[in-house]
Write a structure and sequence with these properties.
- This protein has about 80 residues and is an all-alpha fold.
- Helix content is about 80%, strand content about 0%.
- It has helices at about 5-25, 35-60, 65-75.
- The radius of gyration is 16 Å and the shape is elongated.
């Protein structure tokens, strides 16, 4: 079963932004487990809404996106 676009976009956004946050914190010499926890929280707070918004935008801008697929995903 293929991964829904929304889930894929959330994972992609989370990996990119949380990974950048980890690199930034480690570059600032904040080497502890707290750096990873803070990066994970940034991922949950920022990336989940952005990933969902981006998936909706892709579907809205892509004219050939099948409307029956859009309806089946939104109802269930």
């Amino acid at each position: 079963m293929p991964m829904p676009l929304r889930s894929f976009m959330v994972v992609l956004w989370d990996a990119c932004v949380a990974g950048a946050a980890v690199i930034l914190l480690l570059a600032l010499d904040w080497v502890s487990a707290t750096a990873f926890v803070v990066s994970g929280l940034i991922g949950l707070v920022v990336d989940v809404p952005d990933g969902i918004w981006n998936a909706k935008r892709i579907k809205r801008k892509d004219a050939p996106w099948p409307s029956e697929r859009r309806k089946s995903r939104s109802t269930g």
